[in-house]
Fold:
Amino acid sequence: MKLSYFHVGSDVPQGVVPETAVVIDVLRATTTIAWALHNGAEAIETFADLRHLRERASLFPSSSRLLIGERGGKKLDGFDLGNSPIGVTPDVVNDKRLFMSTTNGTKSLHSVRKAKHLYTMALPNRRAVAERLIEDQPENVWIVGSGWEGAYSLEDSLAAGGLAELIGSHSSVFVNLGNDEMTAALSLWKNWEKDIEGCLRTATHGKRLINLGDHDEDFRCCAGLDQLSIVPTQKQEGVLCAR
Ligand code: 3SL
Structure:
C-alpha cells in the first residue's frame, strides 16, 4: 500500500481522482466529525462556502438539523455549535443532520471530494481507519492534512505518521512511503507518540486555541488515541456517514 501525505488540500495533484483519500484535521474538525457520528448524528454535510451551507440546510426542518462551525476558532454567528468535539454530545446531535463549515478542515475535504473512497480521521479513530484500509487494501492512499490557511500543521502530520505506523505494523501489509512528507510524518510520530497532547499544545494552532482560552477539554479529547470505532465515510459528495 503506497501512502502519500499532503500537508493541505491545495497540495494534492490536480486533475487526478484518488482511489482512496483520508482527510485529517486533528484540531479540530475531523475529531468533531468522529465524535458527532459516534454520538448518533445521522450525517454530516461539509461545506467550504457558508452561503451554500445555509441554502442546503434550509431544505431540512429546523428540528432535524444543526449548523456547526467556526472561523478562526470561534463559533460562527447564528450557528448552533462551534467546532468543539466536546459539544457534539448525544443529547445534542442524536439523529440530527449536521451542516458544517470550518476554516481549513472542510476545505481540505472539498479538495478530494471526488475520491472513490473518502474517509476522515483524527487521533480517536486512527485504529478504526487503519483497520478499514488494511481490510480494503487499496494500492494508493492519499492522506491529506488541513493545516492552517494553506500552511503546514504539526498535529495533522503527527496523525498521518501515526496512521502509517499502525498500518505498517500489520503483518499482511507492505507499506510504501510514497513521498518525503510521509516519511517526515512517520518520524514526527515516533518523536511525539508518548506525548501526543504535548505535541498538540506545541503546534501553532494549539497555541492559537490556548490563546482563545478554555480549551483543556478539547486538547484532551483531540489527543485521545484509538478510542472510537467510527470510520466517517463519504456517501455522496460532501456527505459523511458512520459507515
Ligand atoms: O480549521 C479548521 O477546520 C478547524 O478545525 C479549526 S478550529 O480548531 O476549530 O479552530
About this structure: The longest strand covers residues 65-71. The chain has a mean pLDDT of 97. Residues 2-241 form a domain with the putative 2-phosphosulfolactate phosphatase fold (CATH 3.90.1560.10).
